[in-house]
Model the fold of this input.
Amino acid sequence: MLAAVRRFPWLSFVWLVGTASLASAQEAPAAPVITPPRLVEFVEASYPPTAEAEGLEGRVLVAITIAADGAVTDVQVVRPAGNGFDEAAVDAVRRFRFEPARRDGAPVPVRIQYEYVFERRVPEPPPEPEVPDEPPPPAPGRLEGRVLGREDGAPIRNAEVLISNAELGVSRRVVAGNDGRFAADELPAGTYTVLVLADEYGELSQTEEVGSGEVTDVIYRLEIVSVDDGEDFGFGAEAVIDPPPREVTRRTIRREELTRIPGTRGDALRAVELLPGVGRPPFGAGQLIVRGAAPGDSQTFFEGVPVPLLYHFGGLTSVVNSRLLEQIDFYPGNFSARYGRKMGGVLEVGFRDPLAMYDDRGFHGVAEISLIDASLLAEFPLGDNAAMAAAVRRSTIDGVFSALPEDTFTITALPVYYDYQGFITWTPTPRDKFRVLMYGASDRFGLFAGDSLSDEDPSIRGNLDLLTRFHFLDLAWDHTFDERTVLDVDFQVGTSILEFGLGDLVSFDARFNQTYGRAELRHRANDRVRLIAGLDMFITPLTLEYFGPLLGQSEGGTEGQGLGEETSQYFRFDGVAYRPAIYFESDLRPWDWVQILMGIRVDYAKEIQQWSFDPRFAAIFTVADGYRLKMGAGIFSQPPEFNESAEGLGNPNLDMIHSAHFGLGTDAELAPGIRVGVEGFYKYLWDRVVTTEDGVEPFFDNAGIGRIYGMEVSGRVEPRRGRKFTGFLSYTLMRSERRDRPNQEWRLFDFDQTHIFTLSGTYQLPRNWSVGGTLRLVSGNPATPVTGGIYNPANGTANPISLATNSVRNPLFNRFDLRIEKIWDFESWKLALFLDIQNVWNADNPEGTIYNYNYTQSVPINGLPFIPALGIRGEL
Amino acid sequence: MIFLRRLSYFLLPLAIACGPSVDPAWLVVEARMTGILATVDDAGDRVTPRPGETLRVQLLYAQPDGTPVRPSWVFVACEPATTSGFDFCAGEPFTFDAKADPDEEDRPFTVTLPEDYTNRNVLFLGAVCMNGEIDLALASDLAGGLDPDRICVDGVGVPQIFTFAHPVAIDANRENRAPRIASITLGGEEWTTEPTTTGPCVGMGYPELAYGSDPVEIVVRAREDDLESYVRLGMNGEPETTTEEIYVETLSPFRRIERRFTFITVDDPIADLELEPNDEDISVPEGGLLVPIFFVMRDQRGGFDAANRAVCVTP
Done:
């Protein structure tokens, strides 16, 4: 819903002529002839998104200093309106252009007051000027033409053409179409200044004569001075107005950056691994390791709804097409009471509206193919108030496997993955928005081996099957009651399946029929108090069927039961997991420079019949313009995994796992889109689920504790119009430790990484080329040294004799990734060719150790080598 | 999960294919344990003891020249605890035995099960020093923290800690006969020569293979009735009748083995693999190099058999 702004003439003005002074009354000199400044170019401000969404209006009174040449040199807010209006108004007014004030004909600097109005109605046309008693004006003329690129002659879509004549009081703005054509009618005859603005092409200024009753036809050719991919950044002004924060730390990757970061192969979710506080999983596996927390302690949400899996085949590529995403919000800790049942971090993935990145409401599509997969994406309107986007993707790596000689094994199911997303948004009224989202993914691989595939273990044979699959339907409704109250309702149903089988010794089959619902009501009582109440419900009838050896703790665990009929047990659980929660939050702003967030979340887990009460607190202080100090503390609770609490396989009397988060930090916006931040954190964990002493029944208890502390430094250069370089820097210094039993010593967490350094940047070159690189330096993961093996002569295998858990560390990880992309921009479509190379210098990066059959020899296992990924993308 | 670590044995070799590697598991580079032979007193071929019966367990070894290993050992037998971790004794061991002198002729260790024994398995824990004298005091400390390097006195010999669970015939379904290696052929010919000598071997009756020659097929057969039927816990939690699957482990100190474990099943009644040329360039003496090949057969229910053969690799 667009909102209009109106301009009001200045209410008063004061001139600042320092040398002039009023003469004494006795001298009574002739009064100077004062001509006030005249606005010749008005700039429409961007309506702040949050205010727009909440239906707010505002009036901002500013004082403008106008230099003698008519340029605006200073803007000060005299009477603020808040809600982002001030910043938007200042930004727009700074770009006003005036005919300067004159004193006796000489231009002079002045200061005036100006009221900028943000209101939700079509502006009233200015009053008709009085027609002087003069001869009828001459017939108007027309200025038309085309805007083309100088190098390739291609039309430049959406170029802005500003046509002005101060004497005639004409200021017109037209936009070139897809074919680069523009036209302005009804122009009084005269000489005009024409200013052409076009994204990466910079600007061009020309003077044109328009004759009475004539058509002036022109062609403007622009050179490229900065490049982006032609996408509209979505923010005309440089001030990006974030919605009011509800967390101490939120790191956002926006649409413009999502598919560009080198080393991620265009996968947006991979970009999260490069953020401060995020650990590096070995072999690029898709595990989210947040501030020293186990992967299972963090959760990814799609539009507020938890998703079971994030990556295909454990990390190959994410399950969602990155081009459908608006942004990714990452909360490494101290997150809002809106999120629960996890105590690590939260990753919130937001889908953009269909067609949101295009200026027209026609059909658009993208086709992409690489050595790993192929995808199609299409989006199109459904009437005036609705639009749809759909994407499908399928792997292409199965072609490689089908070419392998099947000597010792037979492939029964090629490694195939696919995923799909489809959603429709519908805004039947200005106060309602509906969204239907369907998405799903599948991974499948199978082979059969008559003889053992391994020379270390004879049981690795038979059918080896892996299947993961989920399908979800999500319905969302956002309703704005009035400018103060908003309701969000989300409901999801779906199924997910996880199957794994290894011969006739191990079988795991888990099926969830998931139902998730959430309702959140946000009410702004006044300018300083906002209240939020929410309810979410997670109900899952599930079936778990497991056949195999008893399971121990997954993190920090040591070798245990081997495979074999004697160690295999059967377990089945049929039941319903029922996990409701309610939460409340208050957002208080007692003064303009301080925001206090207080929340409470109450959860229940039926499978263990446990409640949790999690208070949360955050405070954000704006100590200076663009500088913030923030702090937070809170309790975060998480139920055990289903296999840990299921009777027979685990312990149904387990308690919830808890952690306390503390954070203190500061961030600053040094310039528009250039941000830096420093944050310290401490987390304490208790009631961790660990294997019982010697692994005896009930197999698990809550005896474990943990502590995590560290510091994060971040810096970002965000995409902006005309900016050639974007990038970020992140560094984390951290220690993550666990203690599994009271009689044991503290040990390092499996993925403790003391230093995590990432430097990434992309530079736009002329002719639609871009080049970027990402450097990562990360401490090696801890490892448990092995001094020998315990041999089992009954089956020919061995188990390691381990020293203290995680008492040594792998070498430093270092990797440089490179991405080069070239885009060809045609009249109605684009073609992109990209090369994404991981590990350019082919560093070994040992990830672990492999041993011989009885653990008397060892060699390092190197990480992923030099991997080039070449791809081609067509975009309509 | 543990089985994912086991699975990595299959996947990780793909990752290290281009880098350094450890010795293959079939390669005998020094003295090593290879298996056991279990017998039950007065029970014929049955290898699973009933409560009150006496079980004798003979450890099997191999070393590169095929000569007998001189072991010294200690072991305990006890009832295993139910655990998700390493095997350990549920209570006090009911048998302790040791053989301290490596030059003394090797013997099986013996355990007599209590009459009221009800566990499905009996657990053996022990340590052996091959070709050396075992430090009885240290080796007896089998409750965690054991350093294998301290097992042999003065570090002389090859140490190995071992543990295994042997099935107990607490009901008729768990009674099991040992399989037997019925025949071994090499290149289609019956292969009976055992490594009874060392040194030059050309013209001494061993099958002769030229160094670097083409792969030769080995086929191991069990007796026709060795694949016994029994009832086990099915993957759906219900008892199911199934047939044993026997596997043959093949070890070699020199000539390359195609794969260490080969299965004999109802659908594939022979264990066949290839004896392949070596990867490295090694000089073979003029009189030939005697290469012992070790076979251990297991039926995965406590039944074992073993056989040694030899070939003469010529220059």
Q: What stands out?
A: The mean pLDDT of chain A is 83. The two ends of chain A are 26 Å apart (CA to CA).
